[in-house]
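Workshop exercise sheet. Pairs work together: one partner reads the sequence aloud, the other fills in the structure field after running the prediction. Swap roles for the next sheet.
Pair: D.N. / O.F.
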Amino acid sequence: MNVLLIVVDALRADHLGISGYPRATTPNIDELGLEGTYFRTAIPTMANTDPSIVSILSGLYPHSSGVRDIGYKLDPSITTLQKILHINVYKTIGHDIEMQECGIHLGFDVFNPLSWRIKNKIKRAIRKTFDWKYNVNPAETLTNFGINHINELKNEKFFLYLHYIGPHWPYHSPQ
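Structure field:
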């Protein structure tokens, strides 16, 4: 069994089809939720991203993990989901644009690799050369990262952690 952990920062659960929202705003998330496990009630341990993500991966409250806000670091001796799965012969891949500084990269075989970011930047620049109206879509970029790893590891056990931050900011309200 493979483990795919998708975290969408600042996404309102009451606007997901799987939660009963009448408009078809999230068909892919709804399908994943029906095929996998969807938690209807998920309450963060804190309102800040870093402590919440560390709590998801460690099972600890912020006061126990030591990550209580941005700038705090996870104690490397703390057991995390990725470390447990790595010990149990899972390939562990994580992508989180802004969280490496807090220490969650520990235990991942691959975590937001620089080589991937460089290749992706070159691909976007080439695409922009031919289609100057092209706008970078971070969610699409992250999804492609995940799909590439899933295809690479289809015959292996893997844990893939993807952290989408698109709904977080900036907020552009209509006139």
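Discussion prompt: The beta strands are 3-8, 91-95, 110-111, 158-164. What would you look at next?
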